[in-house]
Structures are given as C-alpha cells and as structure tokens.
Amino acid sequence: MPPRTNWKTRSQEADWARERDQARGRGALSNATGRFESQYAEPFDDGWEPDEKPETLKTETILEKPKTIITYNASPDISFDRTINPYKGCEHGCIYCYARPNHAYRGLSPGLDFETKIFVKPSAPALLRRELSKKSYKPGRIMLAGDTDIYQPLEKELRITRDILEVLAEFDHPAALITKSALVLRDLDILAPMAAKGLVSVAVSFTTLDRKLARTMEPRCAAPHRRLETMRELSNAGIPVTAMTAPLIPALNEPELENLLAAAHEHGATRAGYVMLRLPLEIAGLFTEWLETHYPRRARRVMSLLRSMHKGEDYRSEWKVRQRGESPYAQLVSARFRNTIRRLGMNKADGSLRTDLFRAPTLKDAGSQMGLFDES
After folding, report:
1. CA-CA distance, 170 to 69, in Å (whole number)?
2. Which of 2, 85, 185, 260 is deepest in the core (most CB within 10 A)?
3. Alpha helices (H) in the chain, listed in sequence order
4. Are 126 and 184 in contact (CB under 8 A)?
C-alpha cells in the first residue's frame, strides 16, 4: 500500500483510516505488498460508505512442516552460529522487527500479515531430538530464537518452546533465550536446573520505560514494568539475565539508554547489549509510516540521525555496520553505553555456556525410540 503521505484524495484518506481501524492493537498501520509481488492494491473509492466498521484483524496460524529445525549461520557480527525458530511471524507486532521482510518470501506482507499470519512448527521438538542424536552433531550454544519471539502469545497454548526446552535439558545442551514476554517465567522449572549446570541464559529485550511508547511501538508485548519484574524473577531463580536495549531509535528511545541500563541492573541483569534501529527492505516504509503517524514532530530528527549513521541511506547491510552504524552520533551512543556498563559493573562475565556436559540419551534413557534416529 502506498505511504499515507502520497495519498491525495479524501476518499483515499478515508480508506487508510478504515484499514487503521482494522489494525487496531497491531504495530504496522498497513499491509504493504512484499517486494517479490508483481501486483499491488491501492485504495479505490466506489462511492459507497461502509455500513459498519471493519472487524479487527484476527491471528491465523499456518502449519509448517520443516525437514530440519536448527538453522546455522556464519555471520561475523553475531555471537552464535545456530538458532531455532519455532514460529515465523510474530503477534507482538513490534514495528521495527528486522524479521518482517521474511514474510515476503511467502507471498505475504511484511506489514500486518507478519503480525496476523503466524507459521508454527509443532514438529520442532521431535526434529531437534533427531538432530541432536546424530553421531556427527557437535554441541554449541543454540539461540532461541534468531527471528521472532519464542514466547509470543500463541506459545501459551501451543507450548512448542517449552517442549524444545525439555529436549535441550534432556541432552544437557546449552541455549540462550531472548524474549519480551513474561511467559518465560512459566518455564522456570526447566530453566533453573539448566542454569545451575551453566547451560542457559535469558536476554530480555527492554526498549523503553515509557508505557505509551511501548504500547505504540510494541503493542502486544509485556509492559516495561513487567519486563523488569521478569528480569528480577529470572535472576532470583539463578538464571543469568541480559538486558538487550534493542533497538535504540535515535531521538525516540535512545535518550533513555542510561536509565534503561540502570533499571535493568537494579532488577538483576548482569549483562547488557544494544543494537541501533535497522531498516532493511520493507521495514523502512512501514517504520516511517508509523513514525510520521505517531510521532510527526520527531520524525525528521529521527530519520536524519539514522541516515547519518548509514551515509545518507536508511540502512546498510555490511557486517559490523548494520547493527551500530558509523558516524560521530553512533560513536557517542557507543561511548555512553560503555561508560554506563562500566559504572554499573555489568558485562564482567563473558556469558559463555557449557558444552562439555552434552550427551545424547543412551538406549536405556530413550528406549526403542533411538532406533528411529538418523545416526549419520
């Protein structure tokens, strides 16, 4: 869908308003056509006014049957080489989510489709068991998840993440979790024993202390105070906690950096990290539409600072640059982060997890099921 700022007629503005009503409670304001589609839809005025407001969008689950569940990467600017994503798409609806463009590969929109059409992988735990049981498998920290939140609302009912954790615990396999949801506390009975063995850590994505900004930017995530409480409860259970102040959006939540880190530290986080806002592909249009609608007075300043980090572009995808940018402003943010971390005494431990405890279940442990696994 064309950006709102390009629309000229009153009828087109009315159509945009109707779509906005339909998207109430979601992050994106539109369902922009993906980059691989040869056709796209535009608002059209047929002269009739709708009798009723459109129903709000419902979440749809789509079954996916992957052949494998561990995804490997060789990216030099991230700290893990493998991930598990039990879901694709995310109900949390964070407007800035860098995983949004992946929906375009499926002929869907990175906009509202990303938040309402969720691909689920109920076979993930069984696939994981099979892959970990291969004789050729070498253990390494698995990130849960690299793309979308493993504790998004659907997980409460589907419990795919919990089943994955049970498999990892059975194999004594290390895992690092990242989430914005307090639902992670449901699985303390699995996570705490793993943490006692040095097998697990949890990062809580923590972007703002401003409830209004959080509700607008991350409409279906836990409120800021609930994320802090989650950090505290995880820490009290002996689980290493990292606060991920990501993404930092120039002139929007970036001024909160020091306060975010201090609050997280006060609630038990011992490590922290940050990533600047990334706007690859369709996210640029979705984010600027959101920004101009909700924060029009800050929009020019936000985009000016962001582009200053990427040589005048909305985004550059080069290693090392894509996450933190290059500019005097980027250097200032980096210095503020380092100074605050040093003052708070965070990031003293390296955050590594143990791999030496890994073991595939024996025949006695697993019974006849072991015969089903590929031992290549």
Report:
1. 17
2. 260
3. 10-22, 112-116, 124-132, 155-158, 160-170, 188-196, 211-217, 224-236, 257-266, 283-294, 296-308, 321-324, 328-344, 363-366
4. no
Backbone dihedral region of 198: left (phi > 0), alpha (psi from -120 to 50 degrees) or beta? left
Tokens (6 digits) for 173: 């396999």
pLDDT in tens, 308-331: 999 999 999 998 899 999 999 999
Cα–Cα distance measured from residue 83 to residue 141, given in angstroms and rounded to the nearest whole number: 9
pLDDT at 103: 96
Domains in the chain: boundaries: 56-277+333-353
Q: Nearest-5° angle of CA 40, CA 45, CA 49?
A: 125
How do the residues of the chain divide into helix, strand and coil, expressed in percent and rounded to 5? 40, 10, 45
Other CB atoms within a 10 A radius of the CB of residue 315 amount to 19
pLDDT of 347 above 50? yes
Cα torsion 217, 221, 223, 229: sign: negative
Instruction: Count how many Cα atoms sit within 13 Å of the Cα of residue 149 in the half-sphere of its side chain.
Output: 27
Give me the residue label for tokens 């929906």.
Answer: 103
Order of strands across the sheet that contains 60-63: 60-63, 117-120, 87-88
Residue 106: CA count within 13 A, CB half-sphere: 18
> CA 332 from chain center: how many Å?
25
Distance CA 25, CA 185 (A): 24
Q: Which fold has domain 56-277+333-353?
A: TIM Barrel (3.20.20)
Interval 130-173: pLDDT, tens:
999 999 999 999 999 888 999 999 999 999 999 999 999 999 99
What is the mean pLDDT of the segment spanning 78-82? Answer: 89
